[in-house]
């Protein structure tokens, strides 16, 4: 490279400053290629070490592509020990915080790490917010970290600022509505999106998201209506509807739809092959319907007929199927024969069944297995103490309760009223919460008074509830 520069300089094509810039630009390109190679080879640690070495040599070797590669390396599981804030500081120092692609990548990185507030800080400090990708990344960050109310609020701000919508951001917003059960809000978002861009009405992914929202919100009839109106269906469309029936206890309808799915679709003239997610819905339907033998057959068919490898979710469905039917011994044997290590969810399914059926001996063994994986979950202590209580073993119950080291995480619920979603959290006792409780109690008193005036029977109303 130096030889080429000397030759160009002798010809008068470049001056010394141009040579200097070209040299460092070429050096940066070569280094970026090295980092990219490490990433593609599955070696993110080496990629980050190379980035750090180059930065210490000279910041001139670092460009926006170098930073993007470094953020991508940080997102790899093997690189969790590296501090992403160092890269963030480098971005600010080099003035790259005006590059939308870098800011969007940082939002994604912080979101994956569970640092949503840091992701929001990156979003807020980005001066040019005209990129739909940046907004989508931030709304997704809230949604993926169980902060769906804030996801909807940010989406509404986006609408207010007349930002251009696309199918991706609308899909993410619908996912947030599904988590909250905010059906009216989701329908409004979908309608507004279609109204702004007519082509969105034909987007199958978007329709599937709306269907998924209906399913998660328990709106089985609306889900089926949308399903029937969707002429072009794919495996996700069928899977969502199968889940919808399964979650609503309509096992027979779920299995009938699964069988229909495997036949030739006359409208599309294709056969839709179920995937592993489809079988989770099918097994869930069998579990909720108490169809033990059918569930075993479908589990076997998944492996033999479709060559699908069961995941933890499938094994969990089978354990749930056996536990709901009261076959605790079979469930225990099934877990012990699993080809993968059972997780806490699977063991807790069996522990819950032991609590329901009062099986002390098996419950104690299951809890020991859970404690090997996680000994700090309050619900495990409560479940076993309930088993002891059901058998009148009060000393054991008291000892188990005394072992609880922390309180349960407060439960949450949401109420949708028009365009407003209000979040309620149990377990708070500060002044603001007491004020809200007082307002609710006053509203209840008024309702009871009105009902009584119309000769309605009101039983066991306690204003101190």
Report what the structure shows.
The structure is a single chain. This protein is mainly α. It has helices spanning 2-10, 16-40, 44-57, 64-74, 84-93, 100-112, 116-125, 132-144, 148-160, 167-180, 183-196, 204-216, 220-229, 235-247, 251-261, 276-289, 292-304, 312-324, 328-336, 344-357, 360-373, 378-390, 394-402, 431-453; strands at 264-265, 270-271, 412-417, 420-425. Among the domains are: 1-128, Serine Threonine Protein Phosphatase 5, Tetratricopeptide repeat; 319-411; 428-465. Pfam families: E_motif, PPR. One of its GO terms (biological process) is RNA modification.
Helices and strands in order:
Layout: H1 2-10, H2 16-40, H3 44-57, H4 64-74, H5 84-93, H6 100-112, H7 116-125, H8 132-144, H9 148-160, H10 167-180, H11 183-196, H12 204-216, H13 220-229, H14 235-247, H15 251-261, E1 264-265, E2 270-271, H16 276-289, H17 292-304, H18 312-324, H19 328-336, H20 344-357, H21 360-373, H22 378-390, H23 394-402, E3 412-417, E4 420-425, H24 431-453
Antiparallel strand pairs: 1-2, 3-4
Helix pairs in contact: 1-2, 2-3, 2-4, 3-4, 4-5, 4-6, 6-7, 6-8, 7-8, 8-9, 8-10, 9-10, 10-11, 10-12, 11-12, 12-13, 12-14, 13-14, 14-15, 14-16, 15-16, 16-17, 16-18, 17-18, 18-19, 18-20, 19-20, 20-21, 20-22, 21-22, 22-23
């Amino acid at each position: 490279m130096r030889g080429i520069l000397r030759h160009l300089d002798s010809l008068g094509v470049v001056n010394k400053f141009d040579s200097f810039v070209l040299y460092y630009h070429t050096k940066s390109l070569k280094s970026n290629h090295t980092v990219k190679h490490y990433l593609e080879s599955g070696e993110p640690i080496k990629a980050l070490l190379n980035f750090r070495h180059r930065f210490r040599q000279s910041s001139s070797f670092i460009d926006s592509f170098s930073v993007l590669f470094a953020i991508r390396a940080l997102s790899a599981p093997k690189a969790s020990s590296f501090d992403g804030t160092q890269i963030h500081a480098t971005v600010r120092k080099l003035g790259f915080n005006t590059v939308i692609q870098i800011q969007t990548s940082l939002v994604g990185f912080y979101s994956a790490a569970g640092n949503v507030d840091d992701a929001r800080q990156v979003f807020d400090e980005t001066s040019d917010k005209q990129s739909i990708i940046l907004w989508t990344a931030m709304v997704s960050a809230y949604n993926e970290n169980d902060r769906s109310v804030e996801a909807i609020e940010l989406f509404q701000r986006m609408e207010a600022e007349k930002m251009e919508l696309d199918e991706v951001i609308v899909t993410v917003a619908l996912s947030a509505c599904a988590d909250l059960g905010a059906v009216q809000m989701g329908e409004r978002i979908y309608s507004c999106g279609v109204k702004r861009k007519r082509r969105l009405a034909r987007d199958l992914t978007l329709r599937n998201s709306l269907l998924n929202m209906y399913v998660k919100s328990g709106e089985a009839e609306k889900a089926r209506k949308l399903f029937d109106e969707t002429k072009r269906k794919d495996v996700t469309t069928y899977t969502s509807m199968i889940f919808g029936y399964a979650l609503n206890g309509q096992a027979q309808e779920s299995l009938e739809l699964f069988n229909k799915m495997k036949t030739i679709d006359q409208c599309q003239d294709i056969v839709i092959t179920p995937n592993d997610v489809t079988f989770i819905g099918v097994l869930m339907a069998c579990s909720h319907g108490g169809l033990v033998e059918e569930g075993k057959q479908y589990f076997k068919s998944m492996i033999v007929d479709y060559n699908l490898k069961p995941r933890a979710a499938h094994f969990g469905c089978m354990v749930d199927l056996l536990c709901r039917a009261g076959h605790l011994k079979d469930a225990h044997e099934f877990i012990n024969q699993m080809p993968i290590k059972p997780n806490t969810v699977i063991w807790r399914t069996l522990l819950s069944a032991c609590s329901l059926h009062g099986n002390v001996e098996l419950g104690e063994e299951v809890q020991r297995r859970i404690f090997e994986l996680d000994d700090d979950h309050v619900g495990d202590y409560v479940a076993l103490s309930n088993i002891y209580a059901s058998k009148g073993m009060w000393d054991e119950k008291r000892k188990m309760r005394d072992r609880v080291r922390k309180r349960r995480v407060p439960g949450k619920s949401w109420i949708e009223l028009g365009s407003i979603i209000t979040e309620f959290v149990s377990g708070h006792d500060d002044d603001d919460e007491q004020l809200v409780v007082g307002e609710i109690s006053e509203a209840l008193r008024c309702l009871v008074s009105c009902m009584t005036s119309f000769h309605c029977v009101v039983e066991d109303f306690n204003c101190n509830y």
